[in-house]
TrEMBL record, chain A:
<dbReference type="InterPro" id="IPR005133">
    <property type="entry name" value="PhaG_MnhG_YufB"/>
</dbReference>
<feature type="transmembrane region" description="Helical">
    <location>
        <begin position="77"/>
        <end position="99"/>
    </location>
</feature>
<dbReference type="Pfam" id="PF03334">
    <property type="entry name" value="PhaG_MnhG_YufB"/>
</dbReference>
<feature type="transmembrane region" description="Helical">
    <location>
        <begin position="45"/>
        <end position="65"/>
    </location>
</feature>
<keyword id="KW-0472">Membrane</keyword>
<feature type="transmembrane region" description="Helical">
    <location>
        <begin position="12"/>
        <end position="33"/>
    </location>
</feature>
<protein>
    <submittedName>
        <fullName>Cation:proton antiporter</fullName>
    </submittedName>
</protein>
<keyword id="KW-0812">Transmembrane</keyword>
<dbReference type="GO" id="GO:0015385">
    <property type="term" value="F:sodium:proton antiporter activity"/>
</dbReference>
From TrEMBL, chain B:
<keyword id="KW-0812">Transmembrane</keyword>
<dbReference type="GO" id="GO:0005886">
    <property type="term" value="C:plasma membrane"/>
</dbReference>
<keyword id="KW-1133">Transmembrane helix</keyword>
<protein>
    <submittedName>
        <fullName>Na+/H+ antiporter subunit E</fullName>
    </submittedName>
</protein>
<comment type="similarity">
    <text>Belongs to the CPA3 antiporters (TC 2.A.63) subunit E family.</text>
</comment>
<dbReference type="InterPro" id="IPR002758">
    <property type="entry name" value="Cation_antiport_E"/>
</dbReference>
<dbReference type="GO" id="GO:0008324">
    <property type="term" value="F:monoatomic cation transmembrane transporter activity"/>
</dbReference>
<keyword id="KW-1003">Cell membrane</keyword>
<dbReference type="Pfam" id="PF01899">
    <property type="entry name" value="MNHE"/>
</dbReference>
Length: 124, 167
């Protein structure tokens, strides 16, 4: 990490700000996972981690290495593309699995039937 | 042409991905990337049973990307605020139904990716035997607002892109 001392001030400020913002958002996402009361709310916590959290960290990485190596380093873009292509699929699968699990188990305290979109099988 | 380059956009993306991964424009990698970009779509064609829909309106795709990006950042701060400062009783999480007019499978895939990437909303499924989307909203204030937002901001542009704007 000794190379960080060679970073010009303007780049250091940008990289530090992005890292702090990204780190804070990842932390908030983790807090959401811990603090929110039921599963259907907890699934929204990691969503901010994978979008803005990961995004800030990746942009920080791009700026840091582009300035240090004095050439455009943009292969982090691939990471963000892969995240944006895979994370939604996972969220969708987990969500459906949770809804149908709760409906079959007739668990009334989980919020699966809030909004009256889904009903328990015996109440149709 | 059609036989060896069935989906030119996919080939272009694969080619660029290869160059980005290797961080080079060395001729050897241009050649290898080119071979992969031609070979992979041909070999993977049986895995894509649906005929790829041609993009009818690339400009709309760009506008949609910019709008989604702004929406993602905005929702991130909303959700962060609720997690940090919202009381446990204050969050009104609910499932809602949204009637969809979009039929193109690629359009629906794009819509689901955009909705799931936006914090605060998770796409559950298209309800069986209907055209209604079940959507879980983290903090619901006004159901009609969500229906209008999804239909005008997301579904409309996606229909322009994939179905040529017929509504």
């Amino acid at each position: 990490m000794s190379a960080a001392a060679d970073l010009p001030v303007w780049a250091a400020v940008i990289v530090a700000a992005l890292l702090v913002l990204g780190g804070a958002i990842v932390l908030i996402g983790a807090l959401g996972l811990m603090r929110l009361p039921n599963f259907y709310q907890r699934i929204h916590g990691p969503a901010i981690t994978v979008t803005l959290g990961a995004g800030c960290l990746l942009v920080a990485s791009m700026v840091y290495f582009s300035v240090l190596q004095e050439r455009p380093v943009i292969h982090e873009l691939i990471i963000s593309v892969f995240i944006l292509m895979t994370a939604p699929v996972v969220a969708m699968l987990i969500m459906r699995a949770a809804v149908y699990r709760d409906l079959r188990a007739r668990r009334h305290d989980t919020g699966a039937v809030s909004g009256n979109v889904y009903r328990f099988p015996d109440e149709e | 042409m059609k036989r060896w380059l069935p989906s030119p956009w996919l080939s272009l993306v694969l080619f660029l991905t290869w160059l980005l991964l290797n961080q080079t424009v060395h001729p050897a990698h241009l050649l290898l990337g080119g071979l992969l970009a031609i070979g992979i779509p041909v070999l993977a064609r049986p895995l894509r049973p649906l005929v790829p829909t041609p993009l009818r309106n690339p400009g709309a795709l760009l506008r949609l990307a910019v709008m989604s990006f702004i929406e993602i950042v905005r929702s991130c701060f909303n959700v962060s605020g609720i997690i940090l400062f919202g009381g446990k009783a204050g969050v009104n999480s609910q499932f809602i139904r949204i009637p969809l007019d979009l039929r193109d499978p690629y359009g629906l895939a794009l819509l689901s990716c955009l909705i799931n990437s936006t914090p605060g909303t998770v796409w559950v499924e298209i309800l069986p035997d209907s055209d209604e989307l079940a959507l879980h909203v983290f903090d619901l204030h006004d159901e009609q607002w969500w229906v209008d937002t999804i239909k005008t901001r997301y579904e409309g542009p996606i229909m322009e892109i994939f179905e040529g704007g017929r509504r």
